Amino acid sequence: MGKKILVIGGVAAGATAAAKARRTDETAEITILEKNGYVSFANCGIPYYIGNVIKSRNSLLLQNAKSLKKRYNIDVYTNTEAIRIDPDKKIVFAKNNRDENLTFNYDKLILCNGAKTIIPQIEGISEIDYFTVRSIEDMDKIKDFIEDHKPESACVIGAGYIGIETSEALMHCGLKVTVVEALPHILPTFSPEVSLKIYEKMSSCGITLKTETKIVKAYKQDNKIILLSEKGESFTTDLLIIATGVKPDVELAKTAGLEIGLAGGVMVNSRMETSVADIYAAGDLVEKKDIITGNYILAPLAGPANREGRVAGCNAAGGNLEYKGTLRTAIVSFENACCAQTGLSHKEAIKYGFDASFTYTEDPNHVEYYPDPKYIFIKLIFDRKTGKILGAEASGENGVERRIDVISTAIFAGLTVYDLGEIDFCYSPPYGAAKDPVNISGLVATNFINGSSLITPQQFLEIYSSELQILDVRTRIEFKSYRVKNARNIYVNDLRESIAELDKNRPVYIYCAVGYRGYVATKLLRSYGFDAYNISGGIEAIKRTAKIKSMEVIDAGNS
Ligand code: NAD
Questions:
Q1: Is the CB of 120 under 6 A from ligand 1?
Q2: What is the C-alpha to C-alpha distance for residues 213 and 380, in angstroms, rounded to an integer?
Q3: Does residue 65 line the site of ligand 1, with CB under 6 A?
Q4: Once rounded to an integer, what is the mean pLDDT over residues 279-290?
Q5: Ligand 1 near 188 CB (within 6 A)
Q6: Ligand 1 in contact with 159 (CB < 6 A)?
Q7: Ligand 1 center from residue 131 Cα (angstroms)
Q8: Which atom of ligand 1 is nearest to 186's Cα?
């Protein structure tokens, strides 16, 4: 008889671990315990099924107990919750939905029981029927509620990944949606100037967005739910979703005495072994190594969960794989607006002691002369001393995912910003440009490191006043449509002839649309002895930054 491999949890990490264990050892006895009614379902697809983008419920159920038995000879116990582990006797105690107590022996145990939704401290919340978005059961309840009660309004607490995706789904169902977020900006893992793309799209689609709004009280009145914020604002809704984050579900792990890390997840080594012999763990339950810093962090994402499950399953079955860690590469969208990120944010990079800087660039996903180009805004974060790429964030419509994936691969390979300018991209007019947006972000960062006199829009806005010498080097038509207040306009091509118009005794702050013409102008003025600075990302980045700071520095109109 082969070794007994018991897997707790049958979704991303668990189902992958069990399947990999089977591919590693045909003789093992492999069993999955899953507390819900479904295994191997695509929980990332839930919002898209609620919003009727994915039509078939069945398509979310990737495998079931029968198909896992047939293909992989895995025994699946659904509706069976593991309650306690005795690591000395190697027994797991469980209870099923018929209230029967069951015991399972193991030689190797793999914990993949994931994370649980954080329900915030809201007075009265336990008396309210609210929904979370995690399981097929949650999804069915939301669908049924919409069908049976025909709600007109919905409120989503939390503007993170699930909050954004679910608000889109509810909007597709015809509901009037309000999203409330405790922090000052939506999608807090992103910089606000990047997540602005989704914020503006949501607003233009009629979603009411309330940031800096913490819900503290909830009650029912005439079949409606009333929510009260800390500031005293009230919201009335027919349907309430709570999407305020998740945390590792470590109660079961604690019964086996597994070491829990500082971030609150189960600690594992690169073989996904926990601190207790013959117990492995993977997925949202565990802390993962950040590839850049080497620190252990939480990253409840499907990609890492799958890779970790594979490593745990292989090793539990006698193989030898290692998990290198994560860059937390992720993407989220609302309608056609999307934001993606990889690696460290600028704030994190500073916190971890890097000499961190960033540049903004904004370039089309394909050449401008081919119809319908879409601009991609890239914030590239790097170490000024070494050129090491530390992270990137991007927003736009088409092609954002490809650029972030390339930068993620570059970070994984240990490349620098100098290398980014050199990467060969496939190109033809419908697909890209001879100089890809990633090449350009690498070149701009390289120039910055080499002393290109680039300043960030944040630095510019900090010193902004009507006394500054600000130069707009776009065309007259561009300047007339909108410009930075108090800027003067000399088109870059006319700068040599008009140089005498500028005051050489004062610094000149230069911008164009997204940075390139400003760079050319800055080089030119510097060669004539001016103290000139190019503003990173041009007026488009200034506009974003000013919006976030609520600064009125843009003049619009035809004057
Ligand atoms: P999240 O951490 O992404 O967002 C939770 C949000 O709720 C945060 O913005 C937080 O500030 C806010 N919040 C917390 N308490 C609040 C309160 N009392 N009032 C108002 N706002 C409050 O979490 P999530 O959206 O629940 O998603 C869970 C996890 O699932 C995420 O960590 C994410 O990594 C993962 N996920 C990823 C994707 C994707 O990659 N596309 C999609 C869905 C989920």
A1: yes
A2: 30
A3: no
A4: 98
A5: yes
A6: yes
A7: 14
A8: 9
At 197-232, the pLDDT tens digits run: 999 999 999 999 999 999 999 999 999 999 999 999
* 160 Cα to the center of ligand 1, angstroms: 4
Cβ atoms of residues 545 and 465 within 8 Å: no
- Within 13 Å, how many C-alpha atoms sit on residue 239's CB side? 27
Measured N-to-C along each axis, helices 161-172 and 192-204 cross at an angle, to the nearest 10 degrees, of 10
pTM of the shown model: 0.96
- 339 pLDDT higher than 70: yes
**Does the beta carbon of 45 lie inside 6 Å of ligand 1?**
no
Answer whether 298 contacts ligand 1 (Cβ < 6 A): no
pLDDT of residue 207: 98
pLDDT digits (tens, 9 = 90+) for 39-94: 988 999 999 999 999 999 999 998 899 999 999 999 999 999 999 999 999 999 99
Q: Where are the alpha helices (DSSP H) in 357-505?
A: 400-412, 417-420, 437-449, 457-463, 476-481, 495-498
- Give the residue carrying structure tokens 């539990």: 316
Q: Are 46 and 11 in contact (CB under 8 A)?
A: no
Pocket test for ligand 1, best of 162, 240, 339, 405 (most atoms within 8 A of CB): 162
The continuous run of DSSP H or E covering 176 comes out as: strand 176-180
Instruction: Report the first-to-last Cα separation within the chain, whole angstroms.
Output: 85
Handedness of CA 463, 465, 471, 477 (dihedral sign): positive
CA angle at residue 246 from 78 to 91, to 5 degrees?
40
CA nearest to 469, candidates 490, 448, 451, 454: 490
Place of tokens 């059961």: 137
In angstroms, the CA 44 to CA 60 distance is 9
The pLDDT value recorded for residue 156 is 98
Q: Is the pLDDT of residue 236 over 80?
A: yes
- Write the residue with the smallest CA distance to atom 2 of ligand 1: 245
CB 326 within 8 A of CB 299: yes
Q: Concatenated DSSP letters for 136-150?
A: HHHHHHHHHHHHHH-
CA 395 from chain centre, in angstroms, equals 11
Closest atom of ligand 1 to 162 CA is 25
Q: Say how far apart CA 356 and CA 345 lie, in whole Å.
A: 10
Contacts of 261 (CB under 8 A, 6+ apart): 267, 287, 296
Tell me, using a 6 A CB cutoff, whether residue 299 lines ligand 1. no
Residue 110, token pair as written in the block: 């793999």
Q: DSSP state, 518?
A: H
532's tokens: 């000139």
Q: Closest ligand 1 atom to the C-alpha of 298?
A: 32
Instruction: Give the atom of ligand 1 at the shortest distance from the alpha carbon of 188.
Output: 9
Q: Which atom of ligand 1 is nearest to the CA of 330?
A: 40
Ligand 1 pocket test, pick from 122, 161, 339 with the greatest ligand atom count within 8 Å of Cβ, gives 161
- Burial of 140 per CB tally in 10 Å (0-12, 13-18, 19+): middle
To the nearest whole percent, how much of the chain has pLDDT over 70? 99
Q: For residue 27, count CB atoms less than 10 angstroms from its CB and return exposed for 0-12, middle for 13-18, buried for 19 or more.
A: exposed
Average pLDDT over residues 469-473: 98
Ligand 1 pocket member 300 (CB < 6 A): yes
